[in-house]
């Protein structure tokens, strides 16, 4: 049971004794540790700080004390909330109370309806738990009144379901390193660019930069949303005029003598900037830069105007370091292309740019944990790792996925707080990912438009054609932007994968639909299987022979010893797998040819762990493919498998069968055979590439 601290009585309640009846219901879960009177936005309010008891912290995710504001006015007005916002950032509350939520007591009987309307119009509003003063007075003796109100109001608002750029700090998470880097660049007068896939948070970062810059008084920040017709419809000299007028207005410069025609605008721009004092700086932010670039699709005049505009910027900045430009968009071609129709691109070489990918795992965990706890959703460590691995830290996809989890809990009428485990999330994975289809399409749509060849590479990888991807990826121009956008990574075995699986699934399913398939993997049609098998076998043998030659030439750890793999004639004559018997014969031959022979060579060196140690360390990609063969053989040749082998078997089957039950897969044993041979070919290509790349790097 909580209490009202003596100093609250002495310093505040002694002057406002009627407020005691409003505080008493909170003592069933809080200590009242501070009380004072404040005035802001023409409103005088009583402010209290409540310290929650442990059971309240656990139930509602409180990590700090909670601000409580009482307004004695009989009707609610926005200025009351404006005042409360200020109190949160003032002493003694600043750094002491919860920042995502506060309590509000109002004499207005319709406070809940008023607040609901206000929040619907201002979605970034903090969580405001409202209490009607008369209801509080009547609740005396009901120890569950406060808890019931908190449950009702905390757990009904979906904090994850927010899709617009964040204009306030309330729900902004992470990105501290990027922000510090760009603030530092502004201070040094350096131009910067920020590019990334749709909905990675670029605009939210730009808004945050502007807020930080204004707080630190770094200069005049002028933000342009270049897709806005009021911006993109302007000619280059009209956009410069817009900037000049904003500068004149801010610093009270006389604009009556300025000339804004196309011929004189550049000199006017330079003249205005030259009048800035040493402590004054202009920071221009151009969001969605594609819309006013030579690549613009809607307004053709920017094909030429882009040159004039940025030549003026370039010339001005070379003489005056008081202006900084920050540009952002999806397509970095505006800074990567050196010439435009034979003319030097004025942005080439003067803008340092970086790509924005998803949150790192710590940033994502902070967002999911903080917002989830306020909604009565507690995510285990394994569950948060699952969310990160499934959605790659992409801000929008992660938020919407968590919103869908919340909707599922509501549909099931689950009592909260609820422990969201990894198994619970996996259970609804397919339905949740299907609901994310629209957002996945939006995220990658412009990648397909801007970089068609790279998108086709992504389709190869998503569709399971890893070997073809590896072969083509030797040409770096085919994967350059995939890596930068965070859509391509390599695992510990050197095998490429899409680090946002839900996007990989979307791309693969879209391709499957286009090609009339029901599966992500393009299973070889029956009439073509014999020819396919002969080609695969021939290529595997050739690649193995070539890899062995490279290993010997580079004096690396041998695979099979002085001789090549045995029983090549058996491997040449393998058959199409139509049933389990065929597959057992096939996997046994593969095991004897490639796995047993490596282990026998290791034993000849007196090293029984050669396959698991030296071989794995030196040829991790090939090890992964051969371990698949070893595990599949164990599954069919042993009655019982130990825990480790069973776990590895499940990992390979989930990958090869797209998480389907074996009994649900048509032509199961051919599908497994195809995956084994394709995996082997991919691994050989990876190992060959690694040796050749290392050789080139040493030259």
Protein described:
InterPro entries: P-loop_NTPase. The chain is an alpha/beta fold. It folds into five domains: 149 residues, no CATH class; 180 residues, P-loop containing nucleotide triphosphate hydrolases (Rossmann fold, 3-Layer(aba) Sandwich), CATH 3.40.50.300; 75 residues; 76 residues; 173 residues, no CATH class. It contains 31 helices and 16 strands. The strands form five sheets. It has a five-stranded mixed sheet with strand order 1-2-3-4-5. A five-stranded parallel sheet has the order 7-8-9-6-12, with helices on both faces. A hairpin with a 2-residue loop joins β1 and β2. The termini are far apart.
What descriptive keywords fit this protein?
699 residues, alpha/beta, Rossmann fold, 5 domains, 5-stranded mixed sheet, 31 helices, 16 strands, P-loop_NTPase
pLDDT averaged over residues = 92
Extract low-pLDDT stretches: none
CATH architecture classification of the largest domain: 3-Layer(aba) Sandwich
Shape: flat
| Separation of the first and last Cα atoms | 75 Å
> What is the SS-derived class?
alpha/beta
CATH topology of the largest domain, anyone?
A: Rossmann fold
- Continuous helix count: 31
How many beta strands in the DSSP annotation?
16
Widest β-sheet, arrangement of strands = 1-2-3-4-5
Query: Mind describing the biggest β-sheet?
Result: 5 strands, mixed
Q: Using only CA atoms, what is the Rg?
A: 32 Å
> Would you identify the CATH H-level superfamily of the largest domain?
P-loop containing nucleotide triphosphate hydrolases
Instruction: Name the CATH class of the largest domain.
Output: Alpha Beta
How much of the sequence is in beta strands? Answer: 5-15%
Helix content: 40-55%
User: How many structural domains are formed by the residues?
Assistant: 5
